[in-house]
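Sample entry (266 residues):
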Amino acid sequence: MPELPEVETIARSLRPELTGRAVQAAHLLWRRTLAIPSPERFADQIRGREITGVGRRAKYLDIQLADLHLFIHLRMSGDLYLRPLPYRPEKHDRLILELSDGRALVFNDTRKFGRVWLTAHPGDVIGGLGPEPFDPAFTLQEFYDRLLRHRRQVKPLLLDQSFLAGLGNIYTDEALHLAGLHPLRISDTITFEEAARLYHAIQTVLMAGIEHNGASIDWVYRGGDFQNYFRAYGREGEPCPKCGTPIERLIVGQRSTHICPQCQVT
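Predicted structure, serialized as tokens:
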């Protein structure tokens, strides 16, 4: 699933391509792709709307249309393409937006897990999300206080989008390795110094991911090369870049997790 750096990369690439274009028509090819509103209202509400910007909140793309927001969550296999019109739908296309510049924005989703929302009330979709890792209001002290308010294993806590928005399996493993913290560590036992290491590690690995256009490690997301710079994720049996100990794989909260047993102790 694309995480914050991958979604940010997609948003940055789409922003100059979509901003200022109008949506001339919408073709919903699989009804369950659309969470809200109804398919009939969706086609009517989005037709003729000008795209004023493209942003990101956590793992959601936010295509802004004056007083409406088109949120897209790619989930496991979603992808977005720009294709010239006329466009003949392909097998796994779920939504096609015809644009005023003679192109179509195509949402393709093989596994059908992706979702789209069109709403005038963003809080209905993203209101439950935690802070963004780069938000100036999200200070080290705020992060430490939030850790202490929970008694949970730190990796599942970091994956909880209501605790901190945008992290997924890859960047959580990378941040914990850089910070030297074990993913099973209980959050309210983390010291302020350890929290500081983790706080800066999260920002460091996310920024590195953005600089490398994300990580291309599966059959969906493409174009990034951060996978060539992984410290721990997916490197089972390979030497730790800190100490040379082979990276180990374990399961934490039903998620595949990669650690250095020497650098990350419980």
